[in-house]
Write a structure and sequence with these properties.
Elements lengths: L1 H10 L6 H7 L5 H9 L2 H8 L1 H40 L4 E5 L16 E6 L3 H11 L1 H17 L10 E5 L3 E5 L5 E6 L2 H16 L1 H15 L13 H12 L13 H4 L1 H4 L5 H8 L18 H13 L6 E3 L7 E2 L10 E2 L13 H18 L13
Parallel strand pairs: 2-5, 6-8
Antiparallel strand pairs: 1-2, 3-4, 4-5, 6-7
Length: 385
């Protein structure tokens, strides 16, 4: 625990808001300003601010170390409670699976929801999912049964300190007296597929994890770039990072192959849910893709390239898929159209508020401008810690 606190202290830095930096201007020679304006953020960082780029690389390494220690701590703290919950509500035909983000391991201190998924084994998982979603009487009766089982187990539940809330008619939120929370999802077959998918991407390369955490912290602090906090949730960030790393950038080979193609036998939308669940109990093996990975770009370089990529005006007119090399431009663009992030398993947009992605892309444009002036590189979003 002490080591985590030391790392947090090391990572703390003062970041001025984008508006403050823009308002005070930047004093330099006219020639240098002209050169900088013609460069991309990545070219500016590598040519003019290489020391800051090296600091960014070191900070990203510390973030990864903090992530590992934080994940271990969370699992150690919550595992006894999850075991008790299983004994309370599950039998030999059901189980509890730790969901995203803890199940993937991409967690930040004090910024995660402990999601659990109640699952039914074998072929009955599809029947249970269908009944739960389509039969309101069955759904309400099942949730009431689960709540009664929880409250009846005094070794797990304390009526005086703990509370239960039903969320969106398909989730139960357990709020304990020690301020910890567990969210139980039911009939969450798509969540299981996404969890399986995310595990492969997170395990593929440490640079994926570093870039994801960077963008996650960036999203939590969008006010400094003219946006609002939490513009994109973890699922959307995951797709943006995965899509970017599978795309060639300039003359640079893509960092990752398209994992949904390489591991189609595990990740295809056509795989039965029972097989997805079975795979979740097994460790992820990504050794087969190592020869296909481009090991050259440093994580710090990928961070700046990510900002350049999504600051590109073409991103404003495209749909973003996890399983396609490049954004797909809409055939007919109308004035009020917005870019969309598409769910890999449903091909439906992940959010009815496409303006969130549009605003995120505008914030990337602001970040790009700041980086060209030497800001927002080594003191990027470490202010989170």
């Amino acid at each position: 625990m002490l080591s985590i606190l030391k790392k947090r202290s090391f990572l703390i830095s003062i970041v001025k808001s984008g508006n403050e930096i823009f308002s005070r201007g930047y004093i330099n020679s006219s020639n240098r300003i002209l050169i900088r304006s013609e460069l991309s953020a990545y070219e500016s960082a590598t040519l003019l601010y290489s020391d800051k780029l090296r600091n960014l690389e070191n900070n990203l390494a510390l973030i990864e170390e903090t992530r590992v220690e934080t994940h271990k701590k969370i699992i150690k703290q919550m595992e006894p409670r999850i075991v008790k919950l299983k004994n309370c509500i599950c039998n030999d035909k059901s189980d509890i699976v730790i969901g995203d983000p803890v199940g993937v391991g991409l967690v930040l201190p004090n910024d995660f929801v402990f999601n659990l998924v109640f699952v039914v084994s074998g072929d009955e998982i599809e029947t249970f999912g269908s009944d739960f979603k389509l039969n309101s009487q069955f759904r309400e009766g099942f949730i009431d049964t689960i709540i009664n089982l929880i409250k009846a187990d005094k070794s797990f539940w304390n009526d005086k300190e703990d509370t239960i809330k039903v969320k969106n008619r398909n989730k139960i939120l357990l709020c304990f007296g020690d301020k910890t929370e567990l969210r139980i999802n039911f009939a969450a077959n798509n969540e299981l597929r996404n969890l399986n998918l995310f595990r492969y991407y997170a395990a593929s390369d440490v640079r994926f994890r570093k870039l994801y955490l960077y963008v996650k912290m960036l999203s939590l602090n969008m006010k400094k770039l003219g946006g609002v906090k939490g513009l994109l949730d973890s699922h959307r960030i995951f797709i943006l990072v995965g899509h970017f790393l599978q795309t060639s950038f300039g003359n640079q080979q893509a960092v990752l192959p398209v994992l949904t193609d390489i591991y189609s036998s595990f990740l295809s939308p056509n795989i039965p849910t029972k097989d997805v669940l079975e795979n979740l109990y097994k460790p992820v093996d990504v050794s087969g893709i190592q020869p296909l990975i481009n090991p050259k770009p440093l994580a710090s370089h990928l961070v700046i390239q990510f900002i350049d990529y999504f600051a590109n005006p073409d991103s404003y007119k495209s749909d973003i898929y996890l399983n396609k090399f490049h954004p797909v431009k809409e055939r007919e663009m109308i004035q009020k159209s917005r870019p969309r992030i598409l769910n890999f398993y449903t091909n439906k947009r992940l959010c009815s508020y496409d303006n969130n992605l549009y605003m995120f892309l505008r914030c990337m444009k602001n970040a790009q401008k700041l980086i060209k002036k030497g800001h927002f590189i080594d003191n990027f979003s470490n202010f989170y810690f």
